[in-house]
Amino acid sequence: MPPNSMEPMTVTVGDARRMIGLGKTKTYELLASGELRSTQIGKRRLVFVASIKELLEKGSHQADPDPAQ
User: Fold this and answer.
1) Taking 90 as the threshold, does the pLDDT of residue 68 lie above it?
2) Residue 11 and residue 51 in contact, taking contact as beta carbons nearer than 8 Å
3) CA 61, CA 25: separation in Å to the nearest integer?
4) What is the mean pLDDT of the chain?
5) Where are the domains of the chain?
6) 3-state SS assignment for residue 42
7) Do 19 and 11 contact (CB within 8 A), yes or no?
8) DSSP characters over 2-67
9) What residues contact residue 38 under an 8 Å CB cut-off, 6+ apart?
10) pLDDT of 4 strictly over 70
């Protein structure tokens, strides 16, 4: 990765919604429950990209069938 093209650490709630593919209500529910981590700077709510990735990875593991069954 070139040094000037760093991956962002945070995105807006709207961008997070688009990345996850969820609606506004569900996204805010995830934020309120702490399943999706964010920070507020001034009046802006920013969602941690790492938290989005963790949420999606956690969801993909829950969707995988249990091979022991």
Assistant:
1) no
2) no
3) 23
4) 87
5) 10-61
6) coil
7) yes
8) -TT-PPPSEEEHHHHHHHHT--HHHHHHHHHHTSS-EEEETTEEEEEHHHHHHHHHHHHHHHS--T
9) 10, 13, 31, 45, 46, 47, 48, 51
10) no
| Token pair for 45 | 């709510």
Sole residue written with tokens 């920070």: 39
- Distance separating the N- and C-terminal Cα atoms of the chain: 42
Segments of the chain assigned E as strands? 10-12, 38-41, 44-48
Res 49 pLDDT > 70: yes
Q: What's the full length of the chain, in residues? A: 69
Are 30 and 59 within 8 A, CB to CB?
no
| pTM exceeds 0.90 for this model | no
Which tokens hold the place of 4? 């000037």
